[in-house]
Amino acid sequence: MDDFSIVIKSLRARMFSTVTTSVTVAVAVAMLLVLLGLRDSGRQAFGRGAGNMHLLITATGSELESVLDGIFYANAPNNFIPWAKYEQVAESQPWAYAIPTQMGDSYRGLPVLATTREFFDVYQPSPGHAWELSEGRFFEGTWEIVVGAQVAHMTGIRVGDTIALTHGTGKSGPAHVHKEFEFTVVGIAALTGSPHDRALMATLEASWVLHAHDRRLSEDSNASITTVDDITEGDKMITGIYARVFTRPGRDSSAALQSVHYALRLDPQITAVSPADQIGKLLGIVSNIDQIFLAMAVIVLLSSGISIMLALYNSMEQRRRQIAVLRVLGCSKGRIFSMVMTESAMLGLAGAVAGVVIAVAGAQVVAGIMKARLGLVIEPGLGIEWVLFTVVATVLLAALAGVVPSMMAYRTSVSRALRPLG
Amino acid sequence: MTTESPALSITDLSFSYPGDRSPVIEIGRYELPRGAQALLAGGSGSGKSTLLQLIAGLLDPTSGSLEVGGTDIHALGGAKRDLYRGQTIGVIFQTFNLLDGFTATENVMAAMMFSKIPRKEHKPRAEKLLAHLGIDRPHATPAELSVGQQQRVAVARAVACDPILVLADEPTASLDPENASVAMDLIQSTCKDTGAALLCTSHDPAVWERFETRAELAALNAAATKG
């Protein structure tokens, strides 16, 4: 028997109160940690999304919408850039690359990005990291397709499988599966941490064939199977251009970027946006929101401190006799004070530890939702410094909450609590 | 503290509650030798409760001195007084006041927490003491024990630290005559075995008859007033 075992016995004796109070603290700690953890990793994930492109060129009016649709696959873009326009843009500047992209098709609800081989050769999905394959090779033929790492994980697709794409995403308007056109899976990309992990990458020609086929069927319901030769200029549409200007080796920016960007913005048929700027604006909006959430989490944490105080305060009336008996047995007022303080800190510690466990699990869930909904791959690593800070702060807050009940215990009148004594 | 000093020595002790002019306690001289057993009699409101609290150092006298084992307990401050009380005075309460949720063994060990007895000896010592007093369920909590068994645990706790003085506060008030007799046998024999002096308060004439040394609190107060 020692002071600590008395503290533990006291907590056990009021198990319901101990558990409910600890849960209150745990929820607050978990909220705080999840928000802190996701805030940093979310910013990193958004930053990674644009890869090494400098500009995204679309026909969508809204700049932010262009980025969300053209990079993060939020929705299939509804506005198209004719191929002639693409060629004009591609030739207007000495680009490091200007990769055409076309979105609008899907496979089992997952977006398909139709593009050219340059997408794999020169575009880096994560700055400084070129595309890598975990299996197979990149596409070469028209009816070959490469799937993102998450797609392979989610669907179980293997290299060598044949799949049929859906024209449309099914999110808006009618969608139908083009069973007549089979794609062969030739590669599975390694995880990049970018939204492309949950996309399938097909050839631009194949995408145009699907569209051309729909056009031909609308003209003649008995039309024969469409081939690349059936593609007309009108079928050759894209939804975006991933562009990068030349930079000096080892540098990511160029003085020419501003002037190139300005020149493109003068063209009313296209929208040229800097993904970095748009992501910065988006994070600015999110930042205001997460500050509100953080403030709410801190308030919940403070209120959990108050609930610790109330739990101990309410228990004091029942414990006066126990405290008085301990005093008669030789326990000093100071030891009684420290026992109640320890009890309060233990409630905080139990809540904080449970909160860390909940936060780890919660962050995984939120990261999963972000990945599924936004294509953001977030590694919800809770920084050890945040974990330690939160745990220590919670224990200190709990100890602070224990001051009033501890003072009550300290001032317990033995003669009154043990009546009759003599 | 010397071996010759009495278990309890009271000299010119006076105590008044704040705001009261007349003292509740006023004792000129009273001594209880080591190992002796005495009964302190008095009616309700006579001040027995107050005197026991003064002896235990839970209340401070207005004047005078009160020594337990040769040490003026009131000359000790705060934590030292609490420790001294724990090491030299055992208390048996009318309602036992065992700690709920603690086993019989833990109740006895709780008393040793504040003694100089090495921690590793606490458990075997408590178990031995409980076995000696006939407790065959040392792991039972107070709620699981009969009233008689609770009384035994309370006695074991009071003598666990080999006190100089045991204060028994109306120890039979909640027992029937048969169990009261058994309880008093136990308290008196245990104190005798451990060498602790016993100062017992009681309303019960059957208990009075068990003590050769008896003192009426009113008489003690009156003697001090006359002196």
Distance between the termini of chain A: 28 Å
On the 0 to 100 scale, the average pLDDT of chain A is: 87
Order of helices and strands of chain A: HHEHEHEEHEEHEEEEEHEEHEHHHHH
Binned, the helix content of chain B reads 25-40%
Q: Which fold name fills CATH's third level, the topology of chain B?
A: Rossmann fold
Assigned CATH architecture of chain B: 3-Layer(aba) Sandwich
Radius of gyration of chain B: 17 Å
- Give the number of domains of chain A: 2
Basic shape of chain B: globular
Features:
heterodimer, A: 422 residues, alpha+beta, two-stranded antiparallel sheet, 14% strand, B: 227 residues, alpha/beta, Rossmann fold, four-stranded antiparallel beta sheet, 9 strands
Give a short summary of the structure:
The complex is a heterodimer of chains A (422) and B (227). With 422 residues, chain A is an alpha+beta fold. Helices cover 54% and strands 14% of the residues of chain A.
Structural write-up:
Chain A is built from 13 helices and 14 strands. Chain A is of the alpha+beta class and 422 residues long. In chain A, a hairpin with an 8-residue loop joins strand 8 and strand 9 (176-177). Chain B has 8 helices and 9 strands. The mean pLDDT of chain B is 87. At the A-B interface, helix 1, helix 9 and helix 10 of A face helix 1, helix 2 and helix 3 of B.
Topology:
The complex is a heterodimer of chains A (422) and B (227).
Chain A: H1 3-13, H2 15-49, E1 55-58, H3 63-70, E2 81-82, H4 83-92, E3 95-107, E4 110-115, H5 118-121, E5 133-136, E6 144-147, H6 149-155, E7 162-163, E8 166-167, E9 176-177, E10 183-189, E11 200-203, H7 204-219, E12 237-238, E13 240-245, H8 256-265, E14 271-273, H9 275-329, H10 333-374, H11 384-401, H12 403-410, H13 414-417
Helix pairs in contact in A: 1-10, 2-9, 2-10, 2-11, 9-10, 9-11, 9-12, 10-11, 10-12
Chain B: E1 8-15, E2 25-32, E3 37-41, H1 48-55, E4 63-68, E5 71-72, H2 78-88, E6 89-92, H3 104-112, H4 119-132, H5 147-159, E7 165-169, H6 177-194, E8 197-201, H7 205-208, E9 213-216, H8 217-226
Parallel strand pairs in B: 3-8, 3-9, 6-7, 7-8
Antiparallel strand pairs in B: 1-2, 1-4, 4-5
